[in-house]
Design brief:
Helix content is about 75%, strand content about 0%. With about 475 residues, it is mostly helical. The chain folds into two domains: about 200 residues, no CATH class; about 170 residues, no CATH class.
Length: about 475
């Protein structure tokens, strides 16, 4: 409590400095010749959005809300300017393969006035197309260049911190300020927003927008406000359906589980929980209907199509354990528990990879940015909070099953993370697809930390966890050294 109070005071007093920082940093890209006038317009749009969202907060929380946004955006803009103008002056605008395609298609879409000869799913060859329209809108309506499009992503993840700070008051009010600061400055979220032009920042933003507005819709007593927040929630989940449909599939699966379990004990539920169930059901149905009007198949159909793609792509589900080098591979093949050991090693890799103890072969910046090394600082944060997140998820699930959890959204979110994390572990998805979970895993991490601190021996267990992790890292490096891997 004392720590949260201290951070809350820092946020409250930091809003003025943050506003001054934004006033200085927003025009810098244009003044330095890094980007065009749109590089000043886009941040102002996000500032206006932050001000509007802050108006919906209690007066006592508005300064903290705006402070978090300001410092999160300043951090991202600083990294963008450093990467663009100082470290990569010979070829600014680093783009990976996916980002290059996103940029080219968005430019073409903007040049054609968003007009296509057929349905976007047919023309673009994917059900995940919303990010193309997001980037194309910024290009056509605001004249955005590549730097400014990265500012769009930066603004989206900068808004994640205050929205999570606001929502967390319903789950862990005693740690809301600390959680907001961690998310605002989380290295992985900054990397995803600034290093490349990816769709993941918009996925993270619309996910938290959906969760935040759904919670507000459940709590509002005025009909107009309730409808407004519900509509905002529908917009958030509709975007997710059209840009990463399996996220919505896991959300709907989690919500369905909550609905069915609640139906069996409806009369014993509190009125607040029952109203929350009804609002959530309306939002999910409305989102399905809204996207169906636009030509998107129902979520179950999308899940079947996605499963067909996965099973038709062996690399997605039959992954060779490349982190186990040939020498160890041969020894495992001779052991009776080879398959079990490989499975454990694979699951460990999915949970703790990319491994921060594996250093780059070359220390040139472009190679580091193109690989996974930029995610290392964020992985250290994940290592620290992962055991607490598991505790938080387990306890929240237990509380819901035994009718002790009154927060509908938290119950849905816990089941969603368990379902989503299972898919992430089983399939060979990219590391960045894990980042949609990061803000919410942090929430459950803090829930687990609060619970763990009730026991005197928690520090000893936590120290053993780190000792085991360091031992595994040392053993892995030793195996790589024996195998001759760099």
């Amino acid at each position: 409590m004392a720590m949260n109070y201290a951070f809350a005071r820092i946020l409250d007093k930091g809003v003025g400095v943050g506003a001054l920082g934004l006033a200085v940093f927003i025009p810098l890209p244009y003044i330095l010749g890094v980007a065009g006038p749109s590089s000043a317009v886009v941040p102002l749009i996000f500032v206006a959005a932050a001000l509007l969202l802050a108006r919906t907060e209690p007066p006592s929380e508005r300064r903290g809300f705006l402070s978090l946004f300001a410092w999160a955006f300043i951090a991202r803009l600083t990294v963008l300017l450093v990467l663009w103008g100082v470290l990569l002056p010979e070829k600014p605008g680093f783009l990976g393969p996916d980002a290059g395609m996103f940029f080219r298609v968005s430019e073409l879409l903007a040049a054609n006035g968003f007009r296509l000869n057929a349905h976007p799913i047919t023309v673009l060859g994917s059900y995940d197309v919303a990010h193309y329209y997001l980037f194309a809108a910024a290009i056509r309506l605001l004249g955005s260049d590549l730097f400014t499009l990265k500012l769009v992503n930066s603004g989206l993840t900068a808004l994640v911190a205050p929205l999570l700070f606001s929502w967390s008051r319903s789950a862990i009010p005693q740690h809301g300020a600390v959680l907001g600061l961690v998310v605002a400055l989380h290295p992985s979220l900054i990397v995803l927003s600034t290093v490349d032009l990816l769709k993941d920042p918009s996925i993270v933003f619309f996910m938290i927008l959906f969760i935040w507005s759904l919670t507000r819709a459940m709590k509002e007593t005025r009909l107009g406000s309730k409808v407004g927040f519900a509509a905002l929630s529908v917009a958030g989940i509709a975007y997710l359906r059209m840009d990463r449909a399996y996220v919505v599939a896991h959300l709907e699966l989690a919500a369905l589980a909550v609905f069915l379990l609640s139906a069996f004990r409806w009369r014993s539920l509190s009125p607040v929980f029952r109203r929350g169930i009804v609002v959530a059901a309306i939002v999910f149905v409305a989102a399905e209907g809204a996207t169906a009007v636009l030509g998107w198949p129902a979520t179950p159909i999308l899940v079947c199509l996605n499963a067909q793609h996965v099973f038709g792509t062996p690399a997605m589900w039959d992954y060779e354990l490349k982190t186990v080098e040939p020498v160890l591979e041969q020894s495992l093949s001779k052991a009776s528990l080879a398959r079990g050991l490989k499975t454990v090693a694979y699951v460990f890799r999915r949970l703790y990879g990319p491994f921060v103890w594996i250093m780059p072969n070359r220390w040139d910046l472009r190679g580091i940015l193109a690989a996974d090394f930029a995610l290392y600082p964020g992985m250290v944060v994940s290592y620290a909070l992962l055991p607490f997140a598991m505790i938080g998820l387990a306890v929240t699930g237990w509380r819901f099953v035994f009718r002790k959890e009154e927060n509908v959204v938290l119950s849905i979110l816990a089941l969603f993370l368990l379902s989503y994390f299972t898919q992430y572990v089983l399939l060979n998805l990219s590391w960045r697809q894990r980042e949609v979970m990061v803000p919410f895993l942090l929430v459950f991490g803090f829930i687990g930390l609060v619970l763990a601190r009730r026991y005197r021996w928690w520090k000893h267990v936590y120290a053993i966890y780190w000792l085991v992790l360091l031992t595994v890292a040392a053993a892995h490096m030793a195996v790589r050294l024996v195998a001759g891997s760099p």
